[in-house]
């Protein structure tokens, strides 16, 4: 699974990256899947994915949230929901 953080490196984007790293570390064993974190900082690519307010948060290329610094627990919840939807 690929988690993507979309942003230009502002403090909010950096905080989201840290929270995503913590969440990935905590949940990857539970969902039995490796989670990679990709940072996307190219404005054209960010806008092309539909994010107008950073930071953006995507799972496997699908934008899940934008304009918010998600907590570790919220990221875990989003990953679990994504994974359960993927199974159905």
UniProtKB/TrEMBL annotation:
Gene3D superfamilies: Glutaredoxin. InterPro entries: Thioredoxin-like_fold (IPR012336), Thioredoxin-like_sf (IPR036249), THIRX-like_proc (IPR005243). Residues 10-37 form a coiled coil. It holds the Pfam family Thioredoxin_3. Residues 1-80 form the Thioredoxin-like fold domain. Keywords: Coiled coil. This is Thioredoxin family protein. It comes from Candidatus Mcinerneyibacterium aminivorans.
């Amino acid at each position: 699974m690929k988690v993507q953080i979309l942003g230009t490196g502002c403090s909010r984007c950096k905080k989201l990256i840290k929270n995503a790293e913590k969440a990935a570390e905590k949940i990857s064993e539970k969902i039995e899947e490796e989670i990679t974190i990709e940072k996307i900082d190219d404005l054209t690519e960010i806008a092309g994915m539909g994010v107008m307010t950073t930071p953006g948060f995507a799972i496997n290329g699908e934008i899940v949230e934008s304009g918010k610094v998600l907590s570790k627990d919220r990221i875990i919840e989003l990953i679990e929901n994504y994974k359960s939807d993927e199974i159905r």
